[in-house]
Amino acid sequence: MIPVSVGEGKHIALFGLGESGLATARALVAGGADVTCWDDNPESVAVAAREGLATRDLRELNWRMIDSLILAPGVPLTHPRPHWSVELAHAAGVETIGDIELFCRERRATCAVAPLIAITGTNGKSTTTALIAHILREAGRDVQLGGNIGTPILALDPPSPSRVHVIECSSYQIDLAPSLDPSIGVLLNLSPDHLDRHGTMENYAAIKARLLEGSDVAICGVDDSPSRAIGERLKANGRRVVTISIRDRGGPDLSEAPALRGDHNRQNALAAFAACRATGLSDEEIASGLRSFPGLAHRMQIIGRLGNTVFVNDSKATNADAADKSMASFEPIYWIAGGLPKEGGIAALAPRFNRVAKAYLIGEAAPYFAATLGDAVPYEISGTLDVAVRHAAHDAARSTAAEPVVLLAPAAASFDQFRNFEKRGEAFVNEVMALKGVENAFA
């Protein structure tokens, strides 16, 4: 935990008692703040009260006595309209900030030289964040990984000169961190997303740009026009900007990095390479980390091998657009697909069908996907994941290809047979590892 000493003696209202909200409340209390917590969910309030945190409906507070409102990132700040707690804070002239801002203030107050790498982007930020942390750890650095991925930032170990915090930042978190000032900031890409929370693409891009604007070293993807415009503006203002593009065939050799296939992962690797170089790592240290990176669970995760066959868990590919990335990265594919169908189904994947040796269809989507595949792809309706894994493994073993791939890329939600995509991915991993002779890909 990072006790937030900059909050000592202050009266803090905190709204939102999920994992990050509870971690923030604990850190503020540990630093000596007077914290009052609330949530619209009574069960969340009860959890906080059982921990001994002070809970009270924030509408009952005397807001003239409040120094700050700490807002959980999932609570609306501006759109579609500010949450009632935000309106109360605004009316009283009280600042509204989040846990990333508290970390930044604590870092400046206690150890301003502590390295902070912050990563954002519409797509790929989780993989890039995990990749940077992995490379640094493999090189012997003391690394703390968290933020929008895994552990809330204030539940990590405190800043120190020899400890690198590698933090994924969502647009919601950046919006609540007006003084975000990383040592190294990374913006991967921008495409329309979360516009219900930010109003317009221009506002969304402006929020993402703040992460680079406060960075000592700014690493900016330039393969989309909004990101490219941000990079050009920063350069024109005399800022130190490192640009990355998948069209630049220089940079790291990923031929021996099995978890980093595809153009989208090339962008992630280029960003990680630039960020780790900026920390002082050698090219060989970075290359070694790229080669050993196992990937994120359920995101094009190579989990095992059986003979020449590779098994890949992309359970997070819950729609056609997400599945397209993994299908573009492998061939031939023994494709396990299906679940709870989404609008549009798999029609958009037709250009990838020539990569599929056979499809194994599961869940409620099976008959709909079969109708789309038609005569273009051999398929069977396996029904359940266990059957699909066994049959796909059997067929792939008979392939004469150098590296056939059994790919779980469902292009559908999980809720017909599994609680979430994580449970579906875990089931796939278990079924694969139960096959006789399978070797863990990264053992």
UniProtKB/TrEMBL annotation:
Coiled-coil segments on the chain, per record: none
Signal peptide: none
Mur ligase central domain residues: 119-248
Pathway where it operates: Cell wall biogenesis; peptidoglycan biosynthesis
Reactions accelerated catalytically: UDP-N-acetyl-alpha-D-muramoyl-L-alanine + D-glutamate + ATP = UDP-N-acetyl-alpha-D-muramoyl-L-alanyl-D-glutamate + ADP + phosphate + H(+)
Entries under Gene3D superfamilies matching the protein: Mur ligase, C-terminal domain (3.90.190.20), Mur-like, catalytic domain (3.40.1190.10), NAD(P)-binding Rossmann-like Domain (3.40.50.720)
Location(s) in or outside the cell: Cytoplasm
Primary role: Cell wall formation. Catalyzes the addition of glutamate to the nucleotide precursor UDP-N-acetylmuramoyl-L-alanine (UMA).
Name of the protein in question: UDP-N-acetylmuramoylalanine--D-glutamate ligase
